[in-house]
């Protein structure tokens, strides 16, 4: 494993030197044709397609039913150790408390002429949550269930359905069931992959269609979400995980290496970058990455990630480091500097910012409370973290008074005729014709 070490003099040099990241931002559409086949099969064959693909990719002996019974969920939850249930409960409490602060209220204003204008905020009726489990359900992402389900529940969504791939024996990991049981979610379906996204969007005999689909997944799942968008709402099309760390001489190389590797172990396409104004720190960090990576269970994945998409970047000052960070607009941004609060005002583009030496990214992944579903691949320039708002919709309320309409009829009609819409103009004027 070799992590590149770059020395730059200014932000413009980063623009020239970062060409190695271009392929990560443009993965192509190699899987799109196959995903379209999955989605088409689900529309045509419903549950039969779900069974067929689940047998092919996750569980060879898979049979209906797809949806687990309440008894199955309760039994699986009870099999989890009390200690694990307590950890899940504590994380859920933190996540709920944070997201309750995001609730928006409907509002109305009354104008002097008697008109009432406002906005009604209501939750969507149903949400489908994709919870990755790895091939054969081997790596259940309980944290993703909590991060996606809790904002929907806080928003007031009445129906929440979970889709997650079964294990090789056809069961769902009990930790997933413990989290669902804790949140009183009773619709858990043992199906994963792009075909699960199709079922949530189009519906089958076992899974009624939903209004919004949320949750991370591999490139097949992400592509499926992109293709069904419009039929349903989606949270975002997330790419591989990424972290950028801004560090000064106060940072510890071994801590920085651990933080970079915490992202690199996710996926060979994950990206971990550290930008520092301390050249000596950078040299120590490269050495520490080599040492720690070799000791990881997922050393091959983390090493490939660092070799292809990782970097330690030396810049002349923290101002240049901030400029580089804003250019990258990373999913996760760590400020491992003496005064992170002094740097924060200059950060414009990041999915989440982790402040100081004792706020490593994994604390946000699991426990702090803010959502870990974040924009990737530079989309933090215009996108935000998953929130309660993803599961709500806003309806404008218009109750104009006779006085308002009379005083503004001429202007409204004139604007309508400017656009060639005579019927629009007459719709206003007819109310004052004798």
Characterize this entry briefly.
The protein contains 18 helices and 14 strands.
Any overview of this molecule?
By secondary structure, the chain is of the alpha/beta class. The protein folds into three domains: 4-27 and 240-381, 3-Layer(aba) Sandwich (Rossmann fold), CATH 3.40.50; 32-100 and 122-234, Rossmann fold; 400-432, no CATH class. 44% of the residues lie in helices and 16% in strands. The chain contains 18 helices and 14 strands. The strands form three sheets. Strands 1-11-10-9-12-13 form a six-stranded parallel beta sheet, with helices on both faces. It has a five-stranded parallel beta sheet with strand order 6-5-4-7-8, with helices on both faces. Helix 6 (82-100) packs across helix 7 and helix 9 (193-202) packs parallel to helix 10. The protein is globular, with a radius of gyration of 25 Å. The model has no long low-confidence stretch (mean pLDDT 95).
């Amino acid at each position: 494993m070799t992590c590149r070490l770059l020395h730059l003099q200014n932000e413009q040099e980063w623009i020239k030197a970062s060409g190695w990241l271009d392929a990560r931002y443009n993965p192509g559409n190699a899987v799109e044709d196959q995903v379209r086949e999955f989605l088409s099969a689900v529309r045509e064959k419903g549950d039969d397609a779900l069974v067929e693909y689940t047998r092919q990719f996750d569980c060879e002996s898979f049979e209906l039913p797809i949806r687990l019974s309440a008894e199955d969920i309760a039994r699986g939850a009870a099999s989890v150790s009390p200690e694990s249930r307590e950890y899940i409960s504590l994380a859920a409490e933190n996540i709920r408390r944070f997201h309750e602060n995001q609730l928006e209220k409907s509002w109305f204003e009354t104008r002097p002429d008697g008109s009432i204008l406002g906005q009604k905020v209501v939750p969507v009726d149903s949400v489908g949550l994709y919870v990755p489990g790895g091939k054969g359900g081997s790596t259940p992402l309980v944290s993703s269930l909590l991060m996606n389900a809790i904002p929907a529940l806080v928003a007031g969504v009445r129906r929440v359905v979970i889709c997650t791939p079964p294990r090789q024996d056809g069961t769902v990991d009990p930790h997933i069931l413990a989290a669902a049981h804790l949140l009183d979610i009773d619709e858990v379906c043992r199906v994963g992959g792009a075909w699960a996204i199709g079922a949530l969007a189009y519906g089958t005999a076992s899974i009624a269609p939903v209004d919004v689909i949320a949750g991370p997944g591999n490139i097949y799942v992400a592509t499926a979400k992109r293709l069904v968008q419009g039929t349903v709402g989606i949270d975002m099309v997330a790419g591989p995980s990424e972290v950028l760390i801004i560090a000064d001489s106060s940072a510890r190389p071994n801590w920085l290496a651990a933080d970079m590797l915490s992202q690199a172990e996710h996926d060979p396409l994950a990206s971990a970058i550290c930008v520092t104004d301390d050249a000596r720190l950078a040299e120590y960090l490269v050495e520490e990455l080599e040492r720690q990576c070799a000791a990881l269970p997922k050393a091959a994945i983390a090493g490939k990630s660092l070799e292809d998409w990782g970097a330690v970047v030396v810049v002349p000052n923290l101002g240049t480091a901030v400029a580089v960070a804003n250019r990258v607009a990373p999913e996760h941004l760590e400020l491992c500097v003496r005064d992170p609060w002094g740097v924060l005002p200059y950060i414009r583009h990041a999915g989440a910012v982790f402040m100081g030496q004792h706020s490593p990214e994994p604390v946000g992944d699991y426990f702090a409370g803010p959502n870990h579903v974040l924009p990737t691949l530079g989309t933090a320039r215009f996108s935000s973290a998953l929130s309660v708002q993803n599961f709500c919709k806003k309806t404008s309320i218009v109750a104009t008074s006779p006085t308002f309409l009379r005083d503004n009829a001429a202007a409204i009609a004139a604007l309508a005729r400017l656009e060639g819409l005579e019927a629009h103009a007459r719709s206003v004027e007819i109310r004052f014709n004798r």
